[in-house]
UniProtKB/TrEMBL annotation:
One of its GO terms (molecular function) is nitronate monooxygenase activity. InterPro entries: Aldolase_TIM (IPR013785), NMO (IPR004136). It comes from the Bacteria. This is Nitronate monooxygenase. The keyword Oxidoreductase applies. The keyword DNA-binding does not apply. CDD domains: NPD_like.
Amino acid sequence: MLTTWLTRELGITYPIVGAPMGGRAGGKLTGEVSRAGGIGMLGAARYTTPEWIAAEATVARDIGGVFGVGLMTWALDDDDALLDAALAARPALVSLSFGDPAPYVPRVHEAGVLAIAQVNTIEDLRVAENAGVDAVVAQGAEAGGHTGRIATLPLLQEVLESTTLPVLAAGGIATGRGLAAVLAAGGAGALIGTVLLGSPETIGPAYAVDRLLRAASTDTVYTDVFDKARHQPWSPRWFGRAIRNSFSDQFHGSGAGEDQIAAEYEADDPDHGVVYAGQAAGLVKASRPVAEVVSGIGSDAEKLLSRFCGM
């Protein structure tokens, strides 16, 4: 068995967390990650409602039992109703990322819930440590969706060398080999996202799965054009990694203003709409059920570590 801080604390089989992907990770995907032996996380984006969290949490719990919720800290600073809704749903894990989690960690702990935070730099790590989180996630630039600018492997090494907290990794992890590498380095587990986006349990635009399955790992772009197109007020600290299309080719680095970009955006058009995905896109070759993906990654990592590391 792969035993780490994460598996011990949550009572799960595999040290795998389904990334809290806004607009893609609903209750069904979340629950299936947990049912397969990891822990899934609902993606509570800024535009999510408390009612959505309550409904999708019920679905996740009915399928897999244990689950988590991922929140964007900078959005909570304006309205923390989503945190109230998340805690009311009784998750085992809450992720407070992209900003200072200090105002919210005490409330999470008072509810008897573990708090983690994704970090993209050592400075982020210090903020998370001071906030009192239980673990951190070293999220590298390979990750799909919003992320930082340092690659996963350099960042993971730097974070592991710099903290006594349990450290998970995110960004580019899509096979048992990726999970084994994280664990062999001393990590407590991994977040997986892109590899789940080809699964039938995801939510989102109908064209997204096809776009992902046809994408190579060289077909992503790290950009803020889709935030501008949808008037999403993300800090320039965090751009989003998405599959390239004609819209991003036209506007990325063009200097066009937000109003001009937004006027051209068509969410339902695959040549214009956004499909956030990471550099592991080339490893997603077919649409497979979430449970098959998660159990495969976990069992393959276990075999590899046993064979090569004696773990």
